[in-house]
Q: What sequence folds into this?
């Protein structure tokens, strides 16, 4: 910092000494020298302030547009470069997290690192005998954040990834994008928490997947946030992605000729999304915490690839949530969500469209109703110890056309004890119980214990 200021001083002095004698009269040269001297004094004052801040341990102050006269900016490119540099903020953050898990039952092996209730088997021995031990580092995370002011307004950027592969990379330690988000003033675009979601409801737990009944979705979107002081009102157009099932008809032949079956219905029915989802959110921040109300409207389209036939259903949802400050750092976290065709936005187990009836002929799709509940309490015993306890559930009002082995209801309960021995380090254990129930009424449960160590990357 001081070195850069000395460079700045040298540049100003050079500008003074190099001024041609024929450029102005003697009086004008004296006035210009006086201006240059005044500007040099301002720079020296800033240097003295920064030196005092360094001695006191306080963060340094940055030069602003008003701290240097425009005349000097035009004469010294060093000043312009210095100002652009200090106007920007850049941060690298993240952590390494290692988990040791003992599963008293058994889940889908691709999801053994976390208790996602939709992966709990409802048939004995479906994934092998009970008992499974897992080491995992898949929760580890790395992120880059930047923000800076421009003449046209404030700009921010966020790029964040983790090692928890999903989809085709399920079960793998594969980099997975979490956020790729950019904002300019009140406009944001990219991938970020859905506008239908309240991220602060997520409890202080260490299992990766978390509450099954929570609205939890990182979605591509464009969002506009209305300035309202401490409160927030935001409207967004979000990427539509219908979760579609053909239910008990997945193996039915499209031609009706079983002996010459070229394709089944599961091969030809696909989602068809031509309109983005619309979400609105209002959040009120106050002394005791916050409350939030969000709404969702969706066009749930589907088509047959063999015939080209298309149709759609209307999906909607309302999400009410709150975080209440109780005693000290303690927080009560609650959420209630209900809607039809919003399963894609849920943390687990959701489906948007399913066959309406049990008859193949004359059947149509139906937006599946869904209820989600979250209730957790984060308690801080001291600055070095905390616990979280809570329960969450997802309940689908399944249709008559869904298959018997499809997910209908899930719930999870957690309790933990976490220790923070020093800044940036957490170690703790958690007991987790989960249950799944299918459309047929078959159910299964799981119980597991997890020990985790999390170490944050140091930040200046």
A:
């Amino acid at each position: 910092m001081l070195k850069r200021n000395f460079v700045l001083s040298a540049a100003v002095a050079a500008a003074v000494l190099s001024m041609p004698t024929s450029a102005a009269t003697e009086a004008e040269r004296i006035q210009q020298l006086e201006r240059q001297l005044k500007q040099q004094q301002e720079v020296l004052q800033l240097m003295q302030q920064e030196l005092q801040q360094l001695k006191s341990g306080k963060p340094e102050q940055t030069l602003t547009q008003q701290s240097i006269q425009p005349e000097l900016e035009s004469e010294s490119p060093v000043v312009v470069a210095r100002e652009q540099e200090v106007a920007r903020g850049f941060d690298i953050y993240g952590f390494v997290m290692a988990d040791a898990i003992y599963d008293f039952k058994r889940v889908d092996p691709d999801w053994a690192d976390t208790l996602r209730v939709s992966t709990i088997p409802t048939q004995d021995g479906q994934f092998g005998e009970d008992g499974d031990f897992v080491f995992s580092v898949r929760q580890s995370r790395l992120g880059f954040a930047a923000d800076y002011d421009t003449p046209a307004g404030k700009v921010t950027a966020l790029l964040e990834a983790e090692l928890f592969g999903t989809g085709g990379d399920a079960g793998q330690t594969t980099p997975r994008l979490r956020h790729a988000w950019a904002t300019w003033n009140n406009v944001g675009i990219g991938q970020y928490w859905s506008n239908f979601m309240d991220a602060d409801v997520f409890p202080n737990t260490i299992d990766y997947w978390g509450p099954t009944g929570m609205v939890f979705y990182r979605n591509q979107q464009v969002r506009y946030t209305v300035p309202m002081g401490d409160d927030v009102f935001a409207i967004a157009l979000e990427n539509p992605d219908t979760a579609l099932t053909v239910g008990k008809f997945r193996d039915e032949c499209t031609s009706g000729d079983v002996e010459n079956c070229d394709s089944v219905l599961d091969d030809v029915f696909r989602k068809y999304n031509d309109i983005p989802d619309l979400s609105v959110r209002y959040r009120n921040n106050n002394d005791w915490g916050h409350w939030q109300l969000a709404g969702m409207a969706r066009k749930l389209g589907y088509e047959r690839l063999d015939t080209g036939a298309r149709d759609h259903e209307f999906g909607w949802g309302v999400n009410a949530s709150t975080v209440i400050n109780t005693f000290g750092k303690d927080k009560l976290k609650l959420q209630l969500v209900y809607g039809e065709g919003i399963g894609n936005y849920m943390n687990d187990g959701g489906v948007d469209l399913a066959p309406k009836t049990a008859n193949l002929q004359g059947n149509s799709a139906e937006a599946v109703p869904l209820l989600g509940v979250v209730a957790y309490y984060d308690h801080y015993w001291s600055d070095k110890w905390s616990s979280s306890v809570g329960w969450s559930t997802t309940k689908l009002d399944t249709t008559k056309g869904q298959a018997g082995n499809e997910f209908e209801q899930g719930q999870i309960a957690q309790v933990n004890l976490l220790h923070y021995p020093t800044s940036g380090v957490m170690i703790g254990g958690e007991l987790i119980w989960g249950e799944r129930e299918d459309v047929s009424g078959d159910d299964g449960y799981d119980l597991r214990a997890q020990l985790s160590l999390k170490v944050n990357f140091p930040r200046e």
Q: What stands out?
A: DSSP finds five helices and 20 strands in the chain. Residues 2-86 form one domain. Residues 1-24, 58-86 have pLDDT under 50 and may be disordered.
